[in-house]
Amino acid sequence: MTSHLTPRHPARSPRAVGRRIVVLLAAAAVATSTVAACSGSPSSSGKAGDTLRIAISAAPPTLDPAKADVSAGYPDNLAYEPLIVQASDGTLKPGLATSWSFTDDRNTALRLQLRPGVKFSDGSALTAQTVVDFFTYFTKAAGPNSALLTGAKFAATGPLAVTITLPTPNPDFVTQLTQHSMLSQVISSSGLRDPVKLGTQTFGAGPYRLDTAQTVTGDHYTYVPNPNFYDQARVYWKRVVIRVITNPQTILNALKTGEIDFAQADDPSTIPAAQQAGLTVTSTPVLWNGINLLDRKGMVSKPLADVRVRQALNYATDRAAISKAIFPGTSAPISQISVPDGWGYDPALEKFYPYDVAKAKQLLAAAGYPNGFSLKLVSGDVASMNLVAQAVREQWRQVGVNVQVTDYPNNDQYASNAFGGKFPATTTVWGVLPLGMQGPLLFLPSAHANPFHVSDPQLQSLYDADMKATGDAKQRQDRAVVGYLTQQAWFVPIFSTGLAYYARKTITGTSVSPQAPNASLYEIRPAT
Amino acid sequence: MIRATVRWIGTSAALLFIVTVLTFVLAALAPGDAARSILESSHSTYTPQQYQDLRHQLGIDQPLPAQYWHWLYHLLHGSLGTDLFSGEPIASALSGRLAATLSLAIGGVIVSAVVGIAVGIFSAIRRGPAARAVSLVSLLGMAVPGFWLALVVVELLAIRVRAFPATGYTPFTEDPQKWLQSIVLPVLSLSFGASATIARQVRDSMSEVLAQDYITALRARGVPLRSIILKHALRNAAIPLVTMLGLLLVGLLGGTVLIESIFAIPGLGQQAVTASSTHDLPMIEGVAFFFTLVVIVVNLLVDVSYRWLNPKVRLS
């Protein structure tokens, strides 16, 4: 009867049980970290020369060069050899084409001579007909870059000769045949026969080919050398892995720990941290950030039709202050739609619009707006455009211009409003391009970024002359076009920034230049 | 039993239908579409005809009910369709990602439960400064955002100490050790706040149960404290806890979106964000479908656990 009252085990005190729990948790934590430590630090895996690891900030929706956007640039570069290779100093070198030249004096008929003996990774041969079929597919695919070939004709004029006939003169079209344009990524004939596969496989003649067994679409893409590549000396790596890492801070962390070797920095605010971490940072100015005064006809905002008003807004902008506030140390004030050493850049225009509130007020008064006016400005959130909008709103208030900002965080919504003819002005971040590419995108009447289809006979005349010029004459004409746009104040450029690239010291060949601001994967090699 | 099973299947099917319809409608209502997203990605000029051609090519020019019916028809035939852009089958694109997301969410629940229960018991049976300190840490755990903690643990344990990788995910089937290594920091970040919530719940439930007469009687009989806690008190306190763990798993699935981004883990959350930004409707539907399936399975497990833990439910 008494047995059940006798303790079977000595009772543990609450304190003892609590201590036991703490010990168990500590043991679990130690065990986990031991497993991790035994398996070695992640940074110790792989070494330069074996594997190159690159990060890109957005997953390419497709790898099909005809349907892909800019996010597929690096993934496609490795597998698709371009017709023309652009070196990091901007010079053009033979790729699949060994030579190229305009055969007329209007810069409309471009003849390409193809490299003999080239085979794609699938074993098929490169012929002139392959290139023509590729251009035809590119046009019909209705991808984001299909417009590059609108109105163009292409024909095989020999077994290894192709002639592209452009609808209008454009000496800069050659730049669209380098690795930085999807138009240069020639697909093999077997790839063109089965376009569904192009989204997730590669059919190029580049130094590498996609290894689908080691690839997870949208996360990482693994490339191995293409045994058919015509120049094996340019294959520097046994394996290249491209990882998609969307968060800029995560990219920086992965570089610090050695999990990746190279990446483009989408967020310039991380540059100081990258420098502090001992990474190689390369960058050259290539983007201008500012305001596009879209409504130069005064259709929805009458004052903008007057050049004096547009100039007043330029004078009322304190570029140095905005540049310093938004991207300190990584941006520079500018007054023109080009950057130092960029196409059409004129040092004489460097301070064309000094910050001068009195002059701005004087011009507004002369134009009939002594008390200012209201202006609707649309902005997106990419690349701190929204901050630029807030800054100009405050500064232009000093000259009586009441800016009403509409901010669209959704990029599609922003784009449809900014370029849909609804707003007279928009914030913009624009990459400096050769004038022959810039015009049809930015300022010609048909340009997407000219939604009110504003035309100017003098501008058109300068542009037409530019497109027929070559050599030094073309450079002078480039400057004349940029100068006219600056003087007419179609835009309010505020500051320039660069595309920055981060690299670990284990690799080299990541340099960039104003003529080739995008780092070329073809030059990245082991540092030793 | 049969009736309950039929009811569960019916409810689950209805839930799947409602969620996929709602997802379809909400995604379609978002400004823009896949065709515009493609054409405007290069800033180039395009004509209305080019836009319409691309919409036709992508199959998004059909009325919304027709698009949904098309998707449902394929689903009933065992296919989730293909990605609008790459043409990849959605089921294969998502199945690998599901494993990554479940590794984080289930790992988060397990760690939260173990730590939360242990700390909760500790707080319930101990009084004084130690218990107050644990309460304070619990409060802190609930207040600290997971993403902030993620950035801190990456800096400390990946960049400075180099004990764990800062990014990436290794599938379990490829290398179990590297798998464990790759999920430690994300799971830690996910489970810190959840552990605190569970700890408070367990502490309150345990305190209540430990004050019951039958516990006093057991102690008077000399039953060891460990036995009282594990066999009697914890079992009774576990009933509300099971519901909480089910809800927690569903909540952590949502929490993985940010954590996956910070640790560059290819999970469903990352895919959902990418698909939403490109208006890839079939992919968005696929992600919603997978998430809903997980929720249905979790609810089933909670129901089964309830029956096992609580005889009253079994009898009713």
Poorly predicted runs of 5 or more residues of chain A: 1-48
- Structural class assignment of chain A: alpha+beta
Q: Helical content of chain B, roughly? A: over 70%
Gap between N and C termini of chain A, in Å? 85 Å
Question: Mind describing the biggest β-sheet of chain B?
Answer: none
Task: Give the H and E element order of chain B.
Answer: HHHHHHHHHHHHH
Strands of chain B, total number: 0
The number of helices of chain A is 14
Oligomeric state of the chains in view: heterodimer
Question: How much helix is in the residues of chain A?
Answer: 25-40%
The total count of strands of chain A amounts to: 19
Query: Strand fraction band of chain A?
Result: 15-25%
Overall form of chain A: globular
Care to describe what's here?
The complex is a heterodimer of chains A (528) and B (316). The longest helix of chain A is centred in the first third of the chain and has 25 residues, at 14-38. Mean pLDDT of chain A is 88; it is low at 1-48. In chain A, 29% of the residues lie in helices and 20% in strands. The termini of chain A are far apart. In chain A, strands 1, 8, 9, 10, 11, 12, 13, 14, 15, 16 and 17 form an 11-stranded mixed β-sheet that branches. Chain A has a 4-stranded antiparallel β-sheet with strand order 4-5-7-6, covered by helices on one side. A two-stranded antiparallel sheet of chain A has the order 2-3. In chain A, a hairpin with a 2-residue loop joins strand 6 and strand 7. Chain A is α+β, with helices and mostly antiparallel strands and 528 residues long. Chain B has 316 residues and is mainly alpha-helical. Helices cover 79% and strands 0% of the residues of chain B. The longest helix of chain B is centred in the C-terminal third of the chain and has 39 residues, at 225-263. The radius of gyration of chain B is 24 Å and the shape is globular. The termini of chain B are close together. The relative contact order of chain B is 0.14. The mean pLDDT of chain B is 85. At the A-B interface, helix 1, helix 5 and helix 11 of A face helix 2, helix 3, helix 5, helix 7 and helix 8 of B.
